[in-house]
Amino acid sequence: MIPSHENKNSPLLEFRNVTIIIREKIILDNISSTINEGEHIAILGPNGAGKSTFIRTINREYYPAVLDGYTSVFRMHGREIWNVWDLRAHLGIVSNDLLFSFNREITGREVILSGFFSSVGLFNHHVTAAMQDTADHILDFLEIDHLQQRPMTSLSSGEARRFLIGRALVHDPKTLILDEPTNSLDLHSLHTFRSLLRKIAQSGTGIILVTHNLHDIIPEIRRVILMKEGRFWKDGQKTELLTDETLTELFRVPLHVLKAGGYFYATGY
Fold first, then answer.
1. ∠ at Cα 168 (116, 49), nearest 5°?
2. Of 3, 43, 143, 182, which is most buried, counting CB atoms within 10 Å of its CB?
3. What tens digit of pLDDT does each residue of 33-90 get?
4. pTM exceeds 0.70 for this model
5. Of all helices (H) and strands (E), which one includes residue 20?
6. In angstroms, rounded to a whole number, what is the distance separating the alpha carbons of residues 205 and 178?
7. At what angle do helices 157-168 and 129-141 cross, to 10 degrees?
8. Does 65 reside within a domain?
9. Domain count, the chain
């Protein structure tokens, strides 16, 4: 059920003049942007640009600083105050922090079911038949049913990430946010993961992909936000922004961009 104060016609996420300060250091510097529900977006930038902090701000781990002369706005569907439980129907977040938290002796199926309780594994939770049915559907959709009884410690990085995506999908969120999802993946795992991400995007779930890898950007993503030194440096269509000149300036290394099969690749470094 949609919360009574939510405006479905408003943007999914709206940032205006948002600054995040951690231990007296500015990590996000006066960022502004609007992201609509169902939109596929890549947030691209080098390490240290503030990408993960942006995710933690969406997840309400960080809150905007109050600065003289600026009126900060951070809304989701027109609301500034949200119950974390209400957020789950709109946003599913998969981060590397989550991958670390689930590196333990619990099965892949338990990981997915734990999404219903926002827990790390199952304890004294009451798992209903409907929850089991949802888990079965997700296991089939993500093509990991054959791995469901294996402990997370025995899975590859790519396999473990698919179970965490399954955990994020149990509430059928409108948008899935992925933070550096292809770190440590080999070429086979990267191919499998990108195919899975395309499948999710084509199913109607919005994708917000946060990455420093150009080749992570699936063809379904058309809009790109480039992050640099804590700012949203450029925002526009990927065909206009993913160029030799722009990416050379962003990453501070000479780059040449190639396009093949709907993907962009950086060479020359």
1. 135
2. 43
3. 999 988 999 999 999 999 999 998 888 888 888 877 777 888 888 877 766 666 666 7
4. yes
5. strand 13-22
6. 13
7. 130
8. no
9. 1
Nearest alpha-carbon partner for 17 in 79, 77, 70, 75: 70
147-181 pLDDT, tens digit each: 999 999 999 989 999 999 999 999 898 899 999 98
DSSP-based three-state secondary structure for 201: helix
Both tokens of 233, joined, read 């440096």
Distance CA 269, CA 254 (A): 6
Distance CA 6, CA 205 (A): 19
pLDDT at 5: 47
In the chain, what percentage of residues exceed pLDDT 70? 93
**Any domain includes 21:** no
Distance between CA 265 and CA 1 in Å, rounded?
Answer: 42
Q: Specify the higher pLDDT residue, 203 or 10.
A: 203
Distance, in Å, from the CA atom of 136 to the CA atom of 147, rounded to the nearest integer, reads: 12
* pLDDT value of position 68: 73
Residues, the chain = 269
**Of 227 and 80, which is predicted with more confidence?**
227
64, part of any domain: no
Handedness of CA 104, 106, 108, 114 (dihedral sign): negative
Its domain, for residue 246, covers 37-58+83-267
User: Which residue's structure tokens are 């600065």?
Assistant: 67
Contact criterion met (CB below 8 Å) for 215 and 47: no
d(C-alpha 263, C-alpha 245), whole Å: 18
CATH number at residue 107: 3.40.50.300
* Token output for 95: 């981060």
Distances in whole angstroms, Cα of residue 32 to Cα of each of 35, 52, 113, 216: 10, 16, 36, 24
Instruction: Please report whether residue 158 resides in a domain.
Output: yes
